[in-house]
């Protein structure tokens, strides 16, 4: 391998021009590039290393985009991207991050969908094939779904498999069997798959035969020639077939001394799933942390400190929670942590899992099962905790509403990653307040520091609590504030709640007034509590708050750069408020609502007597969210009071890797904007 | 069979006291009672007839409630209810309707969950078993899940099966294989199940073996002795096992001349699934129509009139829609109707399905697959329509957000049964506005008569439309208004939209002012448009509107009876508005918003100039819904205008078979209440 074959590949047609021998060289180049990309940039390197040969073989045999290839979850599409005109984004550090970690039609005609959640590729492929078979003028040829890396155990994947056989017609389902899910494979079918591998695909029961599907086994899924032969044999097939390829996740890492030193290749699949960069490329920002949402990030998990804040908020608060629960395991048999995969990223370390024993259950990538399962545990008297990302809880909406909330069973949902962030568009946490907050009978808690977080968890998992609870795990803004000591310096919130725990069955249903002021009351939910305090500080100081934002102080330069369009836009949206200006000092009231499931009418009723404006700030979508309910309360229930309300939060939109400061500015959620808007209505 | 054995059964212990021979008599009595109940009251008679012997055998062998029995969907639990102290509710016409059609812990300790959606029983059973195995003091013995009647093809059911084997420990999964789903079974696994039946359970691939589960086959699932033997053999088993019982749906109907005459027993499974009463029991109201949500109701489907309003709104508008689409099938290959089961109840008749051919796909009970499948069709250029109940679309929340809306594919979701009704708590349509309306990039249309409905469908399925759309199929309130000719008598809405279709890419994004008045503007969304008009009429007449409600004029008696508590409650909630009184005539503006996905800022900005109060009325939960967004708009974007807003809609709560008039009164949604509230703030 001396020539630079990748430089000659700009479309799949170029793959077809290579000699058979060159295919191996191409695979080697891609693998080397992925290894280097992983070290410098990070990403889902392990599964992509395993799928290098399959991607080359797919583009050798099939004619994308006419032949449609759908990558499930699409986190395994790096080699595909490199073969479809995007290689430099993985090879040139200056271009790292210019393509997403998932397929994206905006990038290439070879990507038909934006996907980041698990299990839908077969259903999407059924749709493409259906349209092809309905429309004689359709340009679509073969339809290929690529699924695996744990995705097969996801609910909708089974629905897809079950419908594929019935639909009939050309469809090729490539099942990438790397013997791994994110942590490990879970479920009875994995023993069946192991027997199928051991028997060279001959054994029964064959899971795919059981769904009425034709089947082929490729034992060496990293042999590009074997894969080319297999795909050739099924190209233009007239019925659905599963091509079961056995690949090695992380293949190539073990030959790289730096990888070995970094511990990437240690036979643990979880450590192979998501990779942080070793060497930070100087010319680019690291891959957004959102891509790793719900994914294990190796090298950090084995921290000797059970809850080291430098790991970031997700792992820090997750580890804190697990440590608290672990102390109670011996005496509370029904205290069970349920994780529908991706434990590592939520601070559920391997050591914890081993120590927890039967108090920990990894159900695989099965959010629906996890919620219903927990509801069963709770109905039988236990106090289970289901831990996953806000974006993944979406998959169990119906079970959260029906099996959990309608049935009123005391399960605790620990929701990680809620709120605004630089996440990609498939993993955004901007929708969680509305998602959870409008379900009847579900208590939704939003702690504003670790002390409140653990207090809420302690209560929700106690026998005192008899109904379902979701706890929005604090984000980085809270963690930064805690480190800076500005979260609740006087301990007012904790003291107020402590007093209530003693004499109330629900200690979190009433808001806490952290500071009693007048004219303006600012209520900041969860992570937005920090911004609420900063707005109050700016009002009290009589300045315009230009140097503050939700997460941290912005540089003047970035502030000014970001401000322009956003502020103007917000002005227009907000009806032409006057531009921000300094003014007389205002001693505002600051309120921590603690929760977003009910309106604390009693507290709200007291405000108009001494306040002209009530401001709400939330770290998520306004529409359907929380703050507008407070506005509606005053409009409907106290119309005579004439109190003005202002709601700050995110627009109803999808965003894709927009940095947080830009988002906050876009939504008018800087201290300066909020101060200006408040002064404009006073 | 002469004695009345059922009268001697008040608990499962009584089943155990019978002789073996008496078990057959008991089954015969239950079957006779179910047949009579079905004729007089209606219900899921077919599947329950098939499960009579299994329920008797379960209670003969197992010791409920210590042994926990979880019925999937729980629509097959009638015989179980009759054996656990609730037989009279099925035998005494005066007591019909006093128990629900689903399991309910409020009714009996033998019911552990309220369930009405499909596929979660195995996961719930895993939870019960987990808690039992964690807690030495648990009273739970055997854990039994009863699943079948089409439920096995549901996504979460597979997740449950896959996790059951891994969990281990005692669990008995009774698979009721009646060879049927609601319409018919769909999917590749049904051929596998057929081979398993034909081979007396010996064939491979065995679907359950593929999931790592032990397995037993009972060929005659209506032989109570065979079932008792089978259950005895697995009682206290130390690992999960599937007991596959082959039953006959509707068994007993063919021996009943009246049934035969009514066409219940015609070898068509769909006609057996849900049964309307033949003879209306005089002493009780019919079983709420909500129980049949999404279920086929035989005897009406074969109407010679393609869209007969007497069938009710669901079928009427569904048939209208299908008739419109059908005309276009020949010329539009990508126009495909996708039904995740339950087609009959949505007016998708068997005749239509047969004529539609490949333009109709029943995917089985698989909402997630159906939405992703449709997204695939649309991505490939088609214009699919997915038709099901609002309550069932909940199951595909993540696919609607990710595969559909994030990807922006032009699928039309036809959502039936949205809005307030007397539905049971598992099938309520009260949450659909918030469910759909807060998803970015999803256009949400709420037609207020058939003309608008078909216009919207025509647009959403045309090539002009390039993004996903949900259409809230009009409900009975709209149909009644259409029949009475009061929906849009002057044709103002239709004319306005007609004008826009010609020159706008999105003809439904702007509200239509149906009547220009002053002081008060009333915006009624979808079905609530009728109530909005009636409020305007009452204001114009200067009366207090006491005789009007959303659906129909109530009798004075029922109005007064219902009014008391509800009105008082609303008063308190609404902050002590003055009691209703007649007043000066007010010529209010009446506005049809057409949609609930965006705020029509331009129209809203014009209102304050000539209106003091803007009123919103919606047919669903206020929190997270639509009207409060308009309140928030005025508060945030026109604070200087000082316009007052009032929002009418439902509370955030679960309701169970509360009649619509009572609900409307509870929520202050009568003409009288709304008029009074408006006059109070003027």
UniProtKB/TrEMBL annotation, chains A, B:
PROSITE patterns: TRANSKETOLASE_1. It comes from the Bacteria. One of its GO terms (biological process) is terpenoid biosynthetic process. This is 1-deoxy-D-xylulose-5-phosphate synthase. Keywords: Isoprene biosynthesis, Magnesium, Metal-binding, Thiamine biosynthesis, Thiamine pyrophosphate, Transferase. It is an enzyme of class 2 (transferase). Residues 280-313 are annotated as: Disordered. GO terms for molecular function: 1-deoxy-D-xylulose-5-phosphate synthase activity; magnesium ion binding. The keyword Metal-binding applies. Pfam families: DXP_synthase_N, Transket_pyr, Transketolase_C. Its EC number is 2.2.1.7. PANTHER family: 1-D-DEOXYXYLULOSE 5-PHOSPHATE SYNTHASE-RELATED (PTHR43322), 1-DEOXY-D-XYLULOSE-5-PHOSPHATE SYNTHASE (PTHR43322:SF1). Belongs to the transketolase family. DXPS subfamily. Pathway: Metabolic intermediate biosynthesis; 1-deoxy-D-xylulose 5-phosphate biosynthesis; 1-deoxy-D-xylulose 5-phosphate from D-glyceraldehyde 3-phosphate and pyruvate: step 1/1. Homodimer. Residues 315-481 form the Transketolase-like pyrimidine-binding domain.
């Amino acid at each position: 391998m001396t020539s630079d074959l990748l430089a000659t590949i700009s479309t799949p047609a170029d793959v077809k021009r290579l000699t058979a021998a060159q295919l191996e060289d191409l695979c080697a180049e891609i693998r080397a590039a992925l290894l280097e990309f992983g070290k410098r940039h990070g990403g889902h390197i392990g599964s992509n290393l395993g799928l290098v040969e399959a991607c080359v073989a797919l583009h050798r045999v099939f004619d994308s985009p006419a032949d449609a290839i759908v990558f499930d979850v699409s986190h395994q599409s790096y080699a595909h991207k490199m073969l479809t005109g995007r290689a430099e984004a993985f090879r040139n550090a200056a271009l790292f991050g210019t393509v997403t970690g998932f397929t994206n039609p905006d990038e290439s005609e070879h990507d038909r969908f934006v996907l980041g959640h698990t299990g839908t590729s077969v259903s999407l492929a059924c749709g493409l094939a259906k349209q092809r078979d309905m429309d004689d003028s359709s340009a679509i040829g073969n339809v290929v779904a690529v699924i695996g890396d744990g995705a097969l155990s996801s609910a909708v994947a089974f629905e897809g498999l079950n419908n594929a056989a019935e639909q009939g017609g050309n469809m090729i389902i490539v099942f990438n069997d790397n013997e791994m899910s994110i942590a490990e494979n879970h479920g009875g079918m994995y023993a069946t798959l192991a027997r199928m591998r051991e028997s060279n695909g001959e054994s029964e029961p064959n899971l795919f035969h059981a769904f009425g599907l034709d089947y082929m086994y490729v034992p060496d899924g990293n042999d590009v020639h074997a894969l080319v032969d297999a795909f050739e044999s099924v190209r233009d097939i007239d019925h659905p077939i599963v091509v079961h390829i056995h690949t090695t996740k992380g293949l190539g890492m073990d030959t790289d001394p730096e990888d070995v030193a970094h511990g990437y290749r240690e036979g643990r699949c979880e450590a192979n799933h998501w990779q942080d960069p070793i060497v930070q490329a100087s010319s680019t920002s690291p891959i957004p942390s959102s891509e790793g949402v719900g994914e294990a990030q190796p090298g950090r998990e084995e921290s000797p400190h059970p809850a080291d804040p430098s790991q970031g908020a997700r792992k820090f608060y997750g580890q804190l929670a697990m440590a608290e629960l672990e102390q109670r395991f011996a005496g509370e048999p029904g205290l069970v942590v349920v994780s529908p995969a991706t434990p590592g990223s939520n601070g559920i370390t391997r050591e914890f899992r081993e120590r927890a024993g039967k108090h920990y259950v990894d159900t695989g990538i099965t959010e629906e099962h996890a919620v219903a399962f927990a509801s069963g545990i709770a109905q039988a008297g236990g106090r289970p905790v289901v831990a996953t990302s806000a974006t993944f809880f979406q998959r169990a909406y119906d079970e959260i509403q029906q099996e959990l909330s309608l049935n009123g069973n005391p399960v605790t949902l620990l929701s990680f990653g809620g709120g605004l962030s630089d996440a990609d568009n498939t993993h955004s946490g901007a929708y969680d307040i509305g998602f959870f907050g409008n379900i009847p009978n579900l208590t939704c808690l939003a702690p504003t520091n670790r002390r409140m977080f653990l207090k809420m968890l302690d209560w929700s998992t106690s026998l005192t609590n008899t109904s379902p609870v979701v706890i929005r795990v604090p984000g980085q803004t809270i963690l930064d504030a805690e480190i800076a000591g500005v979260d609740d310096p006087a301990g007012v919130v904790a003291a107020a709640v402590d007093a209530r725990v003693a004499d109330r069955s629900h200690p979190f249903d009433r808001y806490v007034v952290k500071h009693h002021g007048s004219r303006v009351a600012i209520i900041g939910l969860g992570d937005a509590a920090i911004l609420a305090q900063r707005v109050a500080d700016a009002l009290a100081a009589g300045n315009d708050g230009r140097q503050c934002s939700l997460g941290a102080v912005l540089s003047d330069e970035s502030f000014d750069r970001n401000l322009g369009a956003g502020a103007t836009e917000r002005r227009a949206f907000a009806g032409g408020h006057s531009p921000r200006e300094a003014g007389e000092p205002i001693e505002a009231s600051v309120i921590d609502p603690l929760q977003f499931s009910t309106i604390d009418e009693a507290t709200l009723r007291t405000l108009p007597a001494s306040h002209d404006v009530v401001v709400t700030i939330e770290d998520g979508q306004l529409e359907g969210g929380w703050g507008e309910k407070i506005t509606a309360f005053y409009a409907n229930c106290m119309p005579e009071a004439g109190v003005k309300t202002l709601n700050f939060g995110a627009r109803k939109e999808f965003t894709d890797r927009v940095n947080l400061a830009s988002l906050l500015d876009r939504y008018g959620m800087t201290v300066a904007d909020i101060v200006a808007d408040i002064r404009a209505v006073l």
